[in-house]
Specification:
The complex is a heterodimer of chains A (81) and B (316).
Chain A lengths: L1 E5 L4 H17 L4 E5 L2 H6 L7 E4 L2 E5 L5 H13 L1
Helix pairs in contact in A: 1-3
Chain B lengths: L1 H12 L7 H31 L4 H8 L6 H12 L7 H10 L4 H13 L2 H11 L1 H23 L27 H36 L4 H6 L6 H9 L6 H13 L4 H13 L2 H7 L5 H25 L1
Helix pairs in contact in B: 1-2, 2-7, 2-9, 4-6, 4-8, 5-6, 6-8, 6-13, 7-8, 7-12, 8-15, 9-12, 11-13, 12-13, 13-15
Classes of the chains: A alpha+beta (81), B mainly alpha (316).
């Protein structure tokens, strides 16, 4: 599994990255969290309002900070597939 | 009711003598703090609900291929209700252009969005009253519309945008289906987040305001920076630029200064400069605008805001 945090590097983006890592740990998933700061790549996902969260290539949220619980739920959903 | 509580706390609980400087300052502080924090909670929550209907991803489709003027007006209006933090300014800018939103219209949006924000509105409404808040919104919109139209008409303005911007292609996303429950949960989170960030500044601002209110002589500002001093407006704008993102802390101070004779035009110019022109925002916009266009952008905004100041000082 692959998680990407989209954001040029503001406070919220850093928070989301930390939360995503926390969620991965809680879910016990085998998964790397990477940060995407390149604008062209962020926009390929269609996201204008950062931070965005992408799990396995799918945009799960953007323009807000999802809770650790929510991220964990998404990770678990993806894991079942 | 808040007034009664503030009076009770100052004169009964603290046993202060009504009419003294200290009692005035304390009473003002208690009353304004409670009122502003309550208003912030209610209004930010309400605005967040409205905003959940207008994410930038949707707004760009509304604004795509709009004509000048009508497009600028719509952009300025949507700028008020569309959420984006300053770090999203770059993706919003690129995404709008990519979707076919004209450059001038995009810039109207980027000017209006930070200038007319809910925190500034609450503080203006709560401290200055509805009339001044409305004057601020409407003049702010006029500034955003006019500046965007002028910028959009610069010959070959497209070439003053960084070249890579035109190469980026956007992907498409399906906006998530939000239920009312999602909207209200997100609005509650957002309200908490904003309150956490601004409460300290509001307290400091109202505290300084209270001291000014209680101790500074009544015509202090009128004497040094009143209507007849032509340097007051540009000076207020210059002072405001480094105070970025601190509408929460500065507006209470300005309100106290208005009570000491600062004229409305100077007040408006100062607050617009606090919210709309800032060094960090310019650094962010430099990523998409070439230096020349950025300088024109900042120049036009500054001139427009100073003009607002002179205009209101002259007519009111």
């Amino acid at each position: 599994m692959e998680i990407k945090v989209l954001g040029p590097g503001c406070r919220n983006c850093e928070k989301l990255e930390a939360d995503a890592k926390q969620a991965v740990k809680e879910a016990g998933a085998d998964c790397a969290v990477t940060k995407v700061t390149d604008m062209a790549e962020i926009m390929q996902y269609g996201v204008l309002s950062t931070p965005g969260l992408v799990i396995n290539g799918k945009v799960k949220s953007y323009g807000r900070l999802p809770s650790v619980k929510e991220i964990r739920m998404w990770i678990e959903e993806e894991n079942k597939k | 009711m808040i007034k009664a509580f503030a009076d009770w706390l100052t004169y009964q609980a603290f046993e202060m003598q009504a009419g003294t400087h200290l009692a005035d300052a304390v009473n003002f502080f208690v009353y304004d703090t409670i009122k502003i924090l309550l208003m912030l909670t209610v209004i930010i929550y309400g605005v967040s609900i409205i905003r959940s209907f207008f994410p930038p991803e949707k707004v760009k489709k509304i604004l795509a291929h709009k004509t000048e003027f009508a497009g600028n007006i719509l952009a300025a209006a949507l700028g008020i209700v569309t959420p984006f933090c300053s770090c999203s300014a770059v993706p919003v800018f690129i995404g709008f252009l990519e979707a076919g939103v004209p450059l001038g219209v995009t810039l109207s949006f980027l000017i209006a969005s930070p200038m007319i924000n809910e925190i500034a509105l609450v503080l203006l409404w709560g401290l200055f009253g509805a009339r001044i808040a409305l004057i601020y919104i409407s003049t702010g919109m006029v500034v955003a519309i006019t500046a965007g139209m002028i910028l959009g008409r610069i010959p070959a303005v497209e070439r003053m945008v960084e070249d890579y911007v035109w190469q980026i292609r956007m992907g498409n996303i399906e906006p998530p289906k939000l239920t009312w429950r999602d909207r209200s949960e997100q609005a509650a989170l957002h309200t908490q987040d904003i309150l956490r960030r601004v409460t300290l500044y509001v307290l400091i601002g109202i505290g300084v305001g209270a001291v000014i209110h209680g101790y500074v002589p009544i015509d202090f500002v009128a004497t040094y920076a009143g209507r007849d001093n032509p340097f007051a407006v540009p000076l207020a704008v210059l002072i405001a630029i480094p105070l970025y993102s601190n509408a929460a802390g500065t507006i209470p101070i300005v309100q106290a200064l208005m009570g000491k004779g600062m004229p409305l035009g100077t007040v408006l110019a100062f607050m617009m400069a606090v919210t709309a022109i800032s060094f960090p925002e310019m650094v962010i916009l430099r990523k998409v605008l070439k230096v020349k266009l950025l300088a024109i952008f900042a120049g036009i905004l500054t001139v427009a805001i100073i003009a607002v100041g002179y205009l209101f000082n002259a007519i009111i």
